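Z., the sequence and structure:
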Amino acid sequence: MTSQLAARLPAGMFSLGMLMHVEHVQGNYTSAGTVLAAFSIGMAAAGPVITRQLNRFGTLPVLLTCLLVTTASLTPLVIFQLPLWAMMLLAAAAGATIPPVLPTVRTLYPKLVPQHLVTPLFSLDAALQEIIWVFGPVVITSLVAYLGTVTALLIVIGIQLAGGMLFILEPAVRGLRIPRATGRFGKVLANPSVLLMVLVSLLLIGSLAAMEAAVVAWFGEGSLLGGIILAISALGSMIGGLAIGQRPIRPWSLPARLLVMALGLVAAVLVSGFWGLALALFVAGLGTAPSLAAISSVIAGSVPFADTAEAYGWITTGQLIGAAAGSALAGIAIDSLGGGRGGMLASLTIGALAVLATAVFRNTQPDLRNTHS
């Protein structure tokens, strides 16, 4: 768990760092957004393909190759003054070869503990990953302020390389053997539970992305207050994950956890002022990590072990699409409905769809209350 957190720590720094760097080099945020889009598209498109190779070639070759290629792609993007098209190509290559740490570790977890401890382990993992999103943006912003974008991003690349190697060389990771997948590529999406979890992941992360955009619009870019509120929400998520992580998953678990998040967003639409919004988003956070943990548990309990890596790859793709769509919809709502409250309304709408989808299709989710070993 420690090594995978170290490997994934740059995830909380790359987007913001790259945004500032490309804006500095190209002189506008449109170019920065384009490069970030290329990075995200590369990740979304290649994610399931890369994770499926874990079955074929093994964890060590795939993870090591991805780590080296993404490092080799990001380094010239940072060091050299390149035209926009070259930066986009390198960003797409880097995104496409980001090591699939999360699918690997979530495939591994059920092999490390007895079956009745899998759900608590997923919940602890989801809670602790909030560390990445609390400290990552603060760290990259501080590094850029004191050292400039080039040095800051080179440090992040170094962290990724060191953390990635720490994870790859972990004996449990090196020794993970995933059987060949049971069917052709994409067949796992025919499983109703997997398809629903991909959709819910898209909606959940889309709601969170819209919420973040709304907070930024509420307090203005660069405002410390906005960062504090997002940190409070992440703290709520961590507490929620730790508090109910031991509870077994049943068909109503995910709708109930998403409902907690949605109720917090309802309050966020209605309140005003720093403390009102902070309390509302703290409540919303209480449902976030438990929901992410439930999604992982449903996947682990719904597909054969050989297909879990690809299934988690599709979950990641859904989350990336959700993040892009949520941010875009929030931007439209912010401009057309009058600032941060409009963006928060977009977040609530997307979150409510997630609650509705999981409630209507609850019977496609397995009952994991009686899994003991």
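DSSP finds 17 helices and no strands in the chain. The longest helix spans residues 305-337.

Let me know what you think.
H.
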